[in-house]
Amino acid sequence: MIAQLVLSGLSQGAIYALVALAMTVLYRATTVVNFGHGDMVMAGAFAVYVMVLYLGLPYIAAAFIALALMFALGMAVDRGLVKPARHGPHIALAMMSIAVGYFLRGVARSLWGREVLPMPRVFDIPPIFLGDLVITGDAIVILGAVTVLVAAFFLVFYRTNVGKLIQAVYQTERGAALIGVNVARFHAVMWGVAAAMGAIGGILIAPVTLLYPDMGANLLIHSFAAMTLGGFGSLGGAIVGGLLLGISEQLLGAYVSTALIDVTAYIVIIAVLVIRPVGLFGRQAVVKV
């Protein structure tokens, strides 16, 4: 039973990890915490839903179009809304991200109200039986896709010139600008990348869960919990934190109370901030005087 719960937790945690990684990438690149990121995930899921059900597109084609749309949306948000507020107080950027999220949620509510919408299944993969362990087709697709995407991300980030350029901007924007990097364009691209990465999470869960306009809020809390547990700003920590959170939810729900599934993320945030505020892989900030 434990192995089955851990597998289910890994599958759910992989989505948390992917969304948390997208938020961490944006935070590291721009120092902006995107409180509207959960709603961008929702928008990606609904984009696929519309194209599959209303336009009759194949799921894969719809997924790629949704990624392109969310990338464009992310860049548009930066250029049109975040960039003008960048030189104001930092709280203004947080407020702007909240406003963008609520706008997306409002659009979804205006179209579908508070309905819970099922999406036709697209992953027709038979389960694999390993003794008492059942690996469902959904778990295979989600874990496989997230593993490939995360591996590709870290390969690009640490092993390519593009990744080294990104790390240079992470270290110092002024230094990057001095060597010819267009920092403003870099920020816009990273907003697009983060929105597309978050949309992948929505695209993956769309066929295996129910869709509703407020689903982004739930994902946002779980992503914050994953980032807090792994260490705020740590790319690897976001992955580990998401997976541990998913497993914790399943184990606590099975062995303690099912009610804990809904509050595990909040418990994790509180516990980590009290016991180890920097998380598992975060670094203590050093203030020089």
From TrEMBL:
Subcellular location: Cell membrane
Keyword Repeat on entry: no
Keywords for the protein's UniProt record, in alphabetical order: Amino-acid transport, Cell membrane, Membrane, Transmembrane, Transmembrane helix, Transport
Topology within the bilayer: Multi-pass membrane protein
GO biological process, any: amino acid transport
UniProt GO molecular function: transmembrane transporter activity
Any one of the GO CC terms: plasma membrane
Superkingdom, taxonomy of origin: Bacteria
InterPro entries membership: ABC_transp_permease, BCAA_transport_permease
A Pfam cross-reference name: BPD_transp_2
TM spans (from-to): 14-35, 47-71, 91-108, 129-158, 188-212, 224-247, 253-275
Recorded family membership: Belongs to the binding-protein-dependent transport system permease family. LivHM subfamily.
Name of the protein this chain belongs to: Branched-chain amino acid ABC transporter permease
Taxonomy of the source species: Bacteria, Pseudomonadati, Pseudomonadota, Alphaproteobacteria, Hyphomicrobiales
